[in-house]
Amino acid sequence: MNTYRLTLTLRGPLGTPLSADTLWGHVCWGLCYHEGPAAVEEFIARSADPPSDGPPLVISDPLPAGHLPRPCLPPMTPQARRALQQEMDARRNSSDETGWHDKLKKAGKRPCLPLQVFAGLIDDLSQEKWTRAALQLNGDGGLPKLVTVPVAHNAINRLTNHTLAEGGLFFQEEIFPAKPVDYDLWIRSGLSAERVRELIAWGLEGGYGRDAGTGKGHIEVGGIETRDLPAAGSPNALMTLGPCAPAAGDPTRGFWSTTTRFGKLGGPWASMAGDDQPGGAFKHPVIFLATGAVLAGPPRPYLGRIVRGVHPSRGEVVQYGLALTVRVRCPELQEVR
Question: For residue range 168-185, what is the model confidence (pLDDT) as tens digits?
Fold first, then answer.
């Protein structure tokens, strides 16, 4: 499998947060529109039951350009925390009114680190090292400026097709960038770079996520290059770059948090699924390991699986649960049994 890095540029608000599983669903619909249902069926079959050269397309979450996400790690020990506090107290400027506790908390929860900084931690990955590296960065360190705000919408009376006279507003959270924002999409595939870029471009040509028809989710597909992810010299674990639905043979020792996907049908099925269609437009909830799971195991290019049986009546509907991996060394995993 080849490893690629593709540039995506967000040029407008988002109704749905950027994630690998939603983007992969868009790719399936784009392939359907351009090459027909048979091509999608083959694409899904090769993803669910991969040949020897792997699935046709394994993608990461779209990540802020030049950054990798925060791993899920055990908290710092009290001793390490006290030592870091003493160092901060010794270096603190007298004009700095921010408490060390707030600074530590913010640094420890920083969602991403620059690629070069992350590469320096990859052979000894721990929450203490992550926090120290985050503390050394100035401000946001190049992270994109995104603001999530509740936006009011009119509720429609389906009997009159007019807005309700009273209580006629509902609110949805939407994500707004301050300016166009670049993201890295990491990809592992046996396909050529040109074919990979074409598939992603087809998936995004109608926008991304909820309310794409109204202009939300306007994402431009930029250049693609062959680029290896950083890797530990003597790895003992894998870190996921997207949500993961573990497969039967995947490692189970490690550190992770979970997230639940309440998926919805896309393309024309989103509007065609009515009362006569059991389940309507909604999929069954699926529990994933969240992005950044750290799992003990030998090097593998990806983890997870394609989840079937996620819709009450449409057996062909699936949920993408593959996750790209980075090889890391996490000393704390040697103590987990």
Answer: 676 777 777 878 899 999
Query: Contact 264/281 with Cβ under 8 angstroms?
Result: yes
Q: What is the pTM of this model?
A: 0.88
3-state secondary structure of 306: strand
Structure tokens at 76: 């710092």
**Residue 331 near residue 244 (C-beta atoms within 8 A):** no
Residue type, 80: A
As beta bridge partners, residue 252 has none
Specify the higher pLDDT residue, 99 or 26: 26
d(CA 156, CA 177): 29
Cβ-proximal residues to 295 (8 Å cutoff; 6+ apart), any chain: 237, 238, 239, 240, 250, 251, 252, 253, 254, 256, 303
Residue the block writes with tokens 């020990």: 77
The closest alpha carbon to 230, from 119, 325, 113, 114, belongs to 119
